[in-house]
Amino acid sequence: MASEKRLRIKTLVMVLAMVVCANAGDLLLKRGMTEIGAVAITASGVSHAFWMTVTSPTIWAGIIFLIGFMVSYMTVLSWADYSYVMPAGAFGYAILTLLAVVFLHENVTSKRWVGVLLICLGVLLVGQTKPRTTASAAMQKVTA
């Protein structure tokens, strides 16, 4: 029982790290691309956009956060079910919507907010389940 509680806590902590890193990374990439402007689909337009992208500190900060997301995502997948991690991580969509309103000054319609509320309710339901319902790969090899 104590190991199940420990698994739940460490899984939720890593899902939170995953959500924070993904949201920060996405927000920084969006801000960086807004600073660069629209990309013209021409040889010179693409090369100019590429140069602006690789020299943008905002975009590099976003990439670093997205690497943090990938590390935390791979880590949590090593000990929790995919069917738990992905819905629990979907809470990030709600946070990202709020951040888009606050930092990017986007207008979010009432239908979108209802969708965000439904996502939050789904995350709440998934959070009430066990993070791992299957035996680990190592245990499966031992018993086979």
Describe the structure.
With 144 residues, this protein is mainly α. It is built from seven helices and no strands. The longest helix has 35 residues, at 2-36. The radius of gyration is 19 Å and the shape is globular.
For the sheet with most strands, the description reads: none
Q: Given the helix and strand composition, which structural class is it?
A: mainly alpha
What level of helicity do the residues show?
over 70%
Ends distance: 26 Å
Globally, the shape reads globular
Beta strands, count: 0
Compute the number of helices.
Answer: 7
Low-confidence stretches: none
Q: What's the helix and strand layout?
A:
Elements: H1 2-36, H2 43-54, H3 57-77, H4 82-89, H5 91-103, H6 110-127, H7 137-143
Helix pairs in contact: 1-3, 1-5, 4-6, 5-6
Short account of what is shown:
This protein has 144 residues and is mostly helical.
Tags for this model:
mainly alpha, 144 residues, 0% strand
